[in-house]
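User: Could you check the structure of this?
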Amino acid sequence: MRATRYGQLIQLSFMPRLFPVNCYLVEEAEGFTLIDAALPYSVKGILQAVEKLGKPLTRIVLTHVHDDHVGALDAIKARLPEVPIYVSARDARLMEGDVSLDPGEPSAPIRGGVPKKLASRADVTFADGDRIGSLLAVAAPGHTPGSFALLDTRSGALIAGDAFQTRAGIAVSGIVRPLFPFPALATWHKETALASARKLAGLNPSMLAVGHGPVLEQPAAAIAQAIRAAERALGLASAATKAAGTRRKEESHVAENRD
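Assistant: Sure, the predicted structure tokens are below.
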């Protein structure tokens, strides 16, 4: 495990060179919030990191419910049963293996490692706009129907789960990076993921921390690049691109009339 501190945010990265799976500790005055729970064997590293930092673990928040984000959850809960687990109301159903869709959701199968033997359940559910300590919960569906990002309102750091990946280059969830295609293959609905990426870009985060890959500081340009690449891949043009094309046509038409 590799631990890297970025102010009040600490990235815990497992297998960082080969197959990076990240979880995060966010420091609060009273203790640490754990965001995601990585892999089953990660429990030792997570708890040792908390102990070394000298403050208690006060809550666990999940960006979404896939095996590589809840792997150590049962073991941590067994050792610290008083620590509450926070999950979005929508993805709480995935903890029970329920992959049914809600009315109005895009008709696409929920992909990825939906846990089959997870014992833990949500102690607290949250929705878009809720506050969890210093963190603002921001709905970011697409990778799963109930995926969320968490914005640290003090620093502007955005912990985005799998809404983006930064391993093998930044990409919006659902867009394959050939050297690390796994997050894309586990994405439920690409167009919804792109809409969420645009929403997260609008938060103008100071840092982007994701489930797979390094933390990006001052990520605005990289996020914009990833969104443009996703639009091309999905055959969708952004509003700005459409407006620019319309403007060019109008200018050309005016020029022709002058001639």
